[in-house]
Amino acid sequence: MAAFLQMNIRLNSIKIVPGRYSSLTDHQFRAPYRIRCAAASPGKKRYNIALLPGDGIGPEVISVAKNVLQKAGSLEGLEFDFQEMPVGGAALDLVGVPMPEETFTAAKQSDAILLGAIGGYKWDKNEKHLRPEMALFYLRRDLKVFANLRPATVLPQLIDASTLKKEVAEGVDMMIVRELTGGIYFGEPRGIKINENGEEVGISTEIYAAHEIDRIARVAFETARKRRGKLCSVDKANVLDASILWRKRVTALASEYPDVELSHMYVDNAAMQLIRDPKQFDTIVTNNIFGDILSDEASMITGSIGMLPSASLGESGPGLFEPIHGSAPDIAGQDKANPLATILSAAMLLKYGLGEEKAAKRIEDAVVDALNKGFRTGDIYSPGNKLVGCKEMGEEVLKSVESKVPATV
Ligand code: IPM
Ligand code: MG
């Protein structure tokens, strides 16, 4: 408990009510969440995976993705011990806090974390420190997962689902590298205060230290190097001091990556260029808030936010893998959610979190196969295809994983 409290107190702008950061009781810990421990089989690699289903459609998409992960892994000789823990609104309902101590410990001690979605109308009026989203910030900050990789790829099968013209959208394949543990999301001073006129003022601070810019820029240069060798750094250096430093540090690092072509773009222009000509982008690196906004925009080019996975990585420790969509409370529990973003997040978990590229490729291939067969959830449906629910989409991907010859990487 002590360690977890210290962790929260470090987020010093947030009002902490120590008594509310309670532990799960034995009873709450066991039901409905359980720890599954499979018996070890010889010759198999084992990994501990923390599953954090969260809220809304989170549990539906996680249960589907878990089965796919298990199957693809077993075909490559991998075994997983899954530990499912409450987070966000689910944890608030259970123990009154969005991030129980045991959940954080399980996440921290795992080899990788797969998260569903967090939040919902029910908790919208909660005080800030008791909002479900706080769990995400604790996880990101205290696991130190500063690099958030958000790919946006237009699959030919889904070209009709894009809101852009076919010729603009087809062939889009970009990676947004979003800084995740700094900037305006965490900067001090912050909060709602009273100014000298007695009026309420809301304060958030965009602040970046040189080392925070350098480390995310290095991830981005390395990412671009493995892709098409083009990196666009997005900032607002015509207005914001934090962006002026951002541009200076990114530019200074470019000489270490002569094989990468670096360009810079202001964020307002980048928002426009993403719609005008998205194919010009290969890798984008940007700060926390611009990355949040631009990745939602990029997702729509691909047809649906329900398709996009993400990976959040630090220098060491487990990575956090989650779909970029939210908890969609309007369709929760109706078997309508698109599980593909979470399934593809499981593929990223294998690739970036565990270095298991073959198993990852099996999942990616299976998703394409299920789409080739015409299976579509409502969000990506177009006439002539087969409308399926979350579970059935999961079953189709599972079938494809099982039926495929071993993938070559
Ligand atoms: C995201 C989300 C979160 C963010 C919200 C839910 C706090 O929009 O992961 O993109 O702003 O980072
Ligand atoms: Mg977002």
Automatic annotation (TrEMBL):
According to its UniProt entry, one GO biological process term is:
L-leucine biosynthetic process
Residue spans making up a coiled coil are none
List UniProt keywords, sorted A-Z.
Amino-acid biosynthesis, Branched-chain amino acid biosynthesis, Leucine biosynthesis, Magnesium, Manganese, Metal-binding, NAD, Oxidoreductase
Q: How is the cofactor bound?
A: Binds 1 Mg(2+) or Mn(2+) ion per subunit.
Give the EC number(s) under which this enzyme is classified: 1.1.1.85
Q: At the top level of its lineage, which domain of life is listed?
A: Eukaryota
Q: What catalytic activity does the UniProt entry give for this protein?
A: (2R,3S)-3-isopropylmalate + NAD(+) = 4-methyl-2-oxopentanoate + CO2 + NADH
Molecular-function GO terms, alphabetical: 3-isopropylmalate dehydrogenase activity; magnesium ion binding; NAD binding
Which cofactor names does the annotation list? Mn(2+); Mg(2+)
Pfam families cross-referenced by the UniProt entry: Iso_dh
Residue stretches making up the Isopropylmalate dehydrogenase-like domain: 48-397
Q: Which SUPFAM superfamilies match?
A: Isocitrate/Isopropylmalate dehydrogenase-like
Which pathway does the protein contribute to? Amino-acid biosynthesis; L-leucine biosynthesis; L-leucine from 3-methyl-2-oxobutanoate: step 3/4
Report the InterPro entries cross-referenced here.
Answer: IsoCit/isopropylmalate_DH_CS, IsoPropMal-DH-like_dom, Isopropylmalate_DH
The entry sums up its family as follows: Belongs to the isocitrate and isopropylmalate dehydrogenases family.
Function noted in UniProt: Catalyzes the oxidation of 3-carboxy-2-hydroxy-4-methylpentanoate (3-isopropylmalate) to 3-carboxy-4-methyl-2-oxopentanoate. The product decarboxylates to 4-methyl-2 oxopentanoate.
* Assembly information from the UniProt record: Homodimer.
PANTHER family in the record, alphabetically?
A: 3-ISOPROPYLMALATE DEHYDROGENASE (PTHR42979), 3-ISOPROPYLMALATE DEHYDROGENASE 1, CHLOROPLASTIC-RELATED (PTHR42979:SF5)
NCBIfam families (UniProt xref)? leuB (TIGR00169)
Q: What is this protein called?
A: 3-isopropylmalate dehydrogenase
